[in-house]
Amino acid sequence: xxxxxxxxxxxxxxxxxRALDNVSITIPKxxxxxxxxxxxxxxxxxxxxxxxxxxxDAGEILFEGKHLNESHIYRIGYxxxxxxxxxxxxxxxxxxxxxxxxxxxxxxxxxxxxxWFIKFDIKSWWDKPVExxxxxxxxxxxxxxxxxxxxxxxxxxxxFSGFDPINANIIKDEILSLKxxxxxxxxxxxxxxxxxxxxxxxxxxxxxxxxxxGSKKELKEKFKxxxxxxxxxxxxxxxxxxxxxxxxxxxxxxxxxIVKKEENASxxxxxxxxxxxxxxxxxVENIPTMNDIFIRTVNGVPSL
Length: 304
Description:
alpha/beta; 9 helices
C-alpha cells in the first residue's frame, strides 16, 4: 500500500514533559486515518509537527518519501480544534485571505469560494463579521478554508465540534467525498462513533507513546473475545471443550445468553452443540467497537 506520510521515531520534549516518545506511524495514501488518544496523550503535538508549527527534537517525517519541508505546507490542509479566525474580518475577505496564503490566485480563490458558498447555502454570510457567526457557523467557515486549495493531506482535529446533527452529516459526507477524490485524511477525535463510521486505519497514542496501530478490521479481529450472544428457548448447559454460557436472562421463556467458544472448538461445533439442546432463535458474534478497544487499551487490558 502506498504511503503519503511516514512518521519515524518522533520525540518531542517540553521542559520536564515528554509529549512524544519515539512515535512511529505510517499513513496510507487515499484513506481516512484515525489519530486517537486521551487528552494530553500527545496527538496535538504530533499534528503541530506535521504542520511544521513546531519541530521534533528527534526523528523524521517523510512526505511521499521526501523529508517534510516548507513546500509541503501548500499540500496540507489543517482544521484545528480551536477557532483560528479573525473575529473582526468579514467572512468573504477572511476566506480570500486564507486562500491566498495557501497559494491560490485571487481569481481561482474567488471561483472556488463561490462554489462552496453555493454548495453550503451560505451566500448571505459573505459580508458578515466572523464574530457574528455561531460556533457551528465558524467551524463551517474553517472547514471551507481547510479544503479550498484541494490539499493532498487533510488534518481534521475534532471537525464536528459545534455542529448540530444535520450539519455534522453534511461535513461527514464532504469528508467521504474528499476521500473518494483522492485526498488522505488524518482524523483526530474523541467521538468513537465517528471513528467507526469513517476511519479505515487507526493509531492510538497514550502517555506520549503509540500503543496501538492497524486497520480497523485488523484491530477488531485482534480484540475479539470469542463470545456470541444467543437467543433460544429450552435449557442450555455448558458443553466442556466446546462452549460455556454466562449472563443468562429470561423473558417470557425466551432466553438470552452470552456464549464463549473454547479456543480449539469451531463455530460449527458450537452451533451444533447448542441446537442439540435448545431451539436457537438468533446467534450473533460479539465484535468489539472502537470505543471498547480504546478503553481497553488505555486501561491496559490486553487483547486476546
